[in-house]
Amino acid sequence: MKGIPEFEREIVTSVWGYGSQLGALTDAVLELATAMKVDETNLEAVQKLREKHQDTEVAKRRAATALRARIAELEARLETLTETE
Length: 85
Prior knowledge:
Elements: H1 5-15, H2 18-35, H3 44-84
């Protein structure tokens, strides 16, 4: 069954974006693997998913740090602009 673009666009923009969907699925698979005591040395896919999940979390923290720095920079510039008015 093919999706309906209008519905998909509404869901992705206002309900659950692709990143959120993928994150929830990743978390669920990793939790199930842990609960089932999957031996990651024998199941390469779980090991790879766990590694990529960790890489994603690191990238998100790095992006958040950069965004906070950019916000601080913009706030300082705004303060300078409002002082000169």
